[in-house]
Amino acid sequence: MDDDVRHELRRLRARAYGPDADISGDPVAAARLAALEELERQERLAPAPPPRPRAEPAASSAEDDGAEDDGADDDDDLREHRPLVRSRRTFWVWAISLAAVTALASAATALTLTFVPVPTSVGAPQVGTLEPDPDAETPAVFGQRTGAERAFKDFYGVTAFAGYAQVDATENRSPCVYLLETREVSEQEARGVSGNFVYGGCGAGIFPATVEFVVAEGMPDAFVERFPIGTSVQFVFDGENVGVFADRG
């Protein structure tokens, strides 16, 4: 094991046993560490090479020169024929570790190339949270009342209703949120859903109900004054509250 390999082993051990250990999340590095530790153990168990015979005293300077030349040739021969690993078992441990590292690296590469990642959020800031209105009546769009429906107070000319509505033939109920123009809600006493400003959306499972749109002409004047035309706005119902997000604060 040369100096570079020993340095690699020390570095991997620091990642595995040090105060900032992080190797558990890197299977390739963990496999490499196991292989190098096995290689080190085999080197410790390998018998020490027999001592080299002492050279006979030189009879003359010429013989000394000749002996030095022969010694250099012998060293060259030994280096040329010295095996890279000390035993057949060590060789197979080394070979298997390389194969394991290669397989793990290939698997990791394959996993990263099976799909193109898509961000789940654009990072728009939250600009408000709607205030509940327990006295308001929820619209009939939610069907049979469950007691979980919620109404929220006017938000710049817009009123939000949230609850759980049946969305398929299996009677599954998903979280939904609807936005209506406050003026029309007051006129119709929240018994219907109609008008120029009607938005709604439902979630599914762990995904929350959301409504998103770009502010355009025809929306309530107070809403357009707060969120100029062209602003992207999103309402998110997390099962308890409705938060408002926008790309312009």
Question: Which helices and strands appear, and what pairs or packs with what?
Answer:
Blueprint: H1 3-17, H2 27-45, H3 61-81, H4 88-112, E1 126-129, E2 150-151, E3 158-166, E4 173-181, H5 182-188, E5 198-202, E6 209-214, H6 221-226, E7 232-237, E8 242-246
Antiparallel strand pairs: 1-8, 2-3, 3-4, 4-5, 6-7, 7-8
Helix pairs in contact: 1-2, 2-4
Count all strands and give the number.
8
Residue share in helices? 25-40%
The whole-number mean of residue pLDDT values reads 76
Structural class designation: alpha+beta
- How far apart, in Å, are the first and last alpha carbons? 61 Å
Could you characterize what this model shows?
With 249 residues, the chain is of the alpha+beta class. It has six helices and eight strands; from the N terminus they run H-H-H-H-E-E-E-E-H-E-E-H-E-E. The chain has helices at residues 3-17, 27-45, 61-81, 88-112, 182-188, 221-226; strands at residues 126-129, 150-151, 158-166, 173-181, 198-202, 209-214, 232-237, 242-246. The strands form two sheets. It has a four-stranded antiparallel beta sheet with strand order 1-8-7-6, with no helix packed on it. The longest helix has 25 residues, at 88-112.
